[in-house]
Specification:
Layout (H helix, E strand, L loop, with lengths): L6 E2 L3 E2 L5 H12 L5 E3 L9 H4 L1 H11 L3 E5 L3 H5 L6 E4 L4 H5 L13 E6 L2 H4 L6 H7 L7 E10 L4 E6 L3 E8 L2 E6 L17 E2 L7 H6 L8 E6 L4 E4 L4 E6 L3 E8 L5 H9 L4 H14 L2 H13 L10 H14 L2 H6 L1 H16 L13 H13 L1 H7 L1
Parallel strand pairs: 1-12, 2-3
Antiparallel strand pairs: 3-13, 4-5, 4-6, 6-7, 7-15, 8-11, 8-14, 9-13, 9-15, 10-12, 10-14
Length: about 400
């Protein structure tokens, strides 16, 4: 029985994916930012023998891709979006160790959610890379913002309700997943955590009555509830919240994409009236809530004192700090001008996050909107309270 009752019906297509259907999708769903499901659109695109556990096991041992496990030690806090998962290297024998019922650690597999993310694999010419050859058959645009990623989810895994700052296509390869979707028109009903980590997370457990009662506005938010089966694809617009549950052991793939033909078109999509509030929130959490600004500030101070920079803080942060000192003359000059500091951090983050768009975003075309975003979040009670 559903705890939430304000459920809507989502548009569906029941046909093979074609150029004509792709055009219809781009015009009627991608452009206005409307979610849609494609049933069995790619039912013949995957070789089942490659994607069962035996095939996956052979693949991981042969290709050794860039793969990690989300190590979920505290499942309660993870469900509520209070903690961020830890990425740990995934052993090549992971499937043998965790996914066969006869495996010694079979009962521990719920602690891990596996992601394989490496766009280079798609272009890699390797006889063992046939698994990712299948993914080429379901990529409906060459304009990839991020991904693709492969996800191995054990039955019962609950991926907390969260939103991403890019348009998302998810394909079910094997198994079943349940997707609950909330349009970003109803962000104010989701009680987003603003200082918990990189993702924009909601602390509402959609399967728990007490959690919903503690967050009563969630009852007012219309939502979509979809079961994805093998061969199905769902389009989740940028900034739409989605909570995904594995109903069976499952394998799925996704990538973040764009149909826009220029960087200006894509930037306008992120900052249009429909998305502006959500995008400001994403930038705020990514830069302030997860400590990016604090870490860069510490690096700026070390640069002024000619101290050695620890590699543990990350190359991205070091490069950002070095470029700022080069532009402003000193770390102190950057820190003292908070408005300019915020502007530079956002610009650096945005260009980095969307560097794969074709063509990539550049700073000159986005400065005006970045200033508008800074002004907005500092005048927003929700954002400024956390900012201070």
């Amino acid at each position: 029985m559903d705890i939430l009752t304000n459920k809507l019906s989502l548009d569906e297509f029941n046909e093979d994916f074609s150029e004509e259907l792709c055009k219809k999708f781009a015009e009627e769903y991608y452009t206005p930012g409307k979610a849609v499901v494609f049933r069995q659109a790619f039912k013949n695109k995957f070789d089942n023998k490659k994607w069962d556990w035996e095939g996956m096991n052979a693949y991981f041992k042969a290709i050794k891709p860039n793969f990690h496990m989300r190590d979920i030690k505290d499942k309660t806090d993870y469900r509520l979006g209070k903690i961020v998962h830890n990425y740990v290297p995934m052993p090549a024998d992971f499937i043998e160790r965790y996914y066969y019922p006869s495996s010694p650690d079979y009962d521990k597999r719920h602690q891990y959610y596996v992601t394989v993310m490496n766009k280079g694999l798609i272009d890699q010419d390797d006889e063992n890379n046939s698994l990712f050859e299948d993914l080429k058959n379901v990529m409906i645009t060459d304009n990839i913002v991020r991904g693709p990623a492969l996800w191995l989810g054990p039955k019962g895994h609950y991926e907390f309700n969260h939103s991403d700052a890019a348009d998302n296509l998810i394909f079910m390869v094997t198994g079943k997943k349940r997707v609950r979707l909330f349009s970003n028109e109803h962000d104010n009903c989701l009680y987003y955590n603003l200082n918990q980590g990189y993702a924009i997370q909601s602390p509402v457990d959609l399967d728990d009555q007490e959690s919903i009662n503690a967050h009563p506005k969630i009852k007012d938010a219309p939502y979509y509830d979809i079961i994805l089966d093998e061969g199905d694809m769902i389009y989740i617009p940028a900034f739409w919240a989605h909570q995904i549950t594995s109903l069976t052991d499952s394998v799925s793939a996704n990538y973040f994409m764009s149909f826009d033909q220029s960087k200006d078109e894509y930037w306008q999509r992120l900052t249009n009236e429909r998305n502006f509030e959500s995008f400001a929130r994403h930038l705020f959490v990514n830069l302030i809530g997860c400590g990016f600004k604090r870490r860069v500030t510490e690096l700026l101070e070390k640069l002024d004192d000619n101290e050695e920079l620890p590699e543990s803080v990350g190359k991205r942060n070091i490069v950002s700090a070095q470029e700022l000192v080069k532009k402003y003359g000193s770390g102190k000059a950057v820190i003292d001008d908070q408005y300019a500091f915020d502007q530079e951090l956002i610009k650096y983050h945005v260009i980095g996050a969307y560097r794969k768009t074709t063509p990539p975003l550049q700073g000159e075309s986005i400065t005006k909107d970045i200033n508008r975003i800074i002004d907005h979040w500092k005048n927003s009670k929700e954002l400024s309270d956390a900012y201070s």
